[in-house]
Amino acid sequence: MSGALAAIAADVRGGRRSALALAEEAIARIRTRDGAVNAVTRLLADDARAAAAAIDARVAAGEDPGPLAGVPFGVKDLFDVAGLPTTAGAGMRREAAPAAADAVAVARLKAAGAVLVATCNMDEYAYGFATVNAAFGTTRNPHDPERLAGGSSGGSAAAVAAGMLPLTLGSDTNGSIRIPAALCGLYGLKPTHGSLPMAGVFPFVDSFDDIGPFAASAADLKLAWQVLGGSSGGAAAGGLKVARLGGWFARNADAELIAGIDAIAAHLGGIETVALPEVGRARSAAFLMTAAEGGALHLPELRARAMEYDPATRDRLIAGAMLPASAYFAAERFRGWFRAQAAALFARCDVLIAPAAGTVAPRIDDPAIMVDGQRVPARANLGIFTQPLSFIGLPVVTVPLKRPGMLPLGLQLVGPPGGEPALFALAEALEAAGLTGTDLPG
Fold first, then answer.
1. How many separate domains does the chain show?
2. In terms of pTM, does the model score above 0.85?
3. Which of 19, 20, 173, 260 gives 20 to 30 Å between its CA and that of 305?
4. Where is the Amidase domain (predicted)?
5. What mean pLDDT value characterizes the chain?
């Protein structure tokens, strides 16, 4: 699939389709399909109709509404939407003061002509890889409703994977876009840290937090990234130096994932295997910094009303708030060293390939994965391959292996800071070759 968003917008700008009809279709799909998935927390039907009608009026007046004219979209429920409380997935925030304005990212999509239709489910305060939410329920994987969608942006991923919306926004701290993209068979972007606007996004860990889109093709993902603030420049896939990450990134990955990377390597004429040192320590340091920053952020609320948190979230935040500053500073020092090791690899390579999640989506009734021969909770451990990369702010495009009729598996295409154009070039080339791509309902 290529360029569905651009095609929708071209049809709306050309008067061949109406934005209002597209909004009505998205509303109907959500009402029909979301009962089995639980991706959507709020359906903004009236607002979507009004926005879509305004787009149609602009087209009728001879105006160009923008590159996403009439495209329906959804946002993870930690983006501010004017007039609504930003819940961040927390039941205790259902009655929070309404946001005074849209988050900058939401405003940019709207300014490009996109129509906001829904807010999407997530792990409470973005602390988890599962989208198992005590207040808003568990989001189910559209490929198999008995399995997890991943998290913490699981609702955003499931809304696209179920064919309800063609574009959604999520956030990624330790893998919260990349994990659900992999488990739901989508394209997802975790950009270079700090490169896309975070204003109006409920924070979790400032050192790692980023936003990014989910879409059903590499071209759609790239267009959304450009609208959000990415470069309009490009790169050619043919001249890229590509390698695969071995060591830590080859352990605990299903054989089918390794075979998928093997097929890509063969297609590219053979690629080098390289390794980052001390990846396990990087993951541990990311865990520590996440816990410490998240705990510090929530400490005033924990002191005031701790019992209103989901216990699974509360206990982790309290533990993080109790960590000594010396441990945090040690992790920060290690991060500088680890960043230098990655930079040395990128002096030789443009793109590194690694698994995203190490396996297919775990079952909801058995939310565990195997790591080094031990069963461990999926909610905390699905990010074994994603955490070490966001720890140093690297951009990643997640791509789904082409597996029609099978449960999805996803790969990370990893670049140096600012390396998104090369990642999109490779993603589009692999999709064109039939090695990657989505398998979604109409």
1. 2
2. yes
3. 173
4. 22-230, 304-423
5. 97
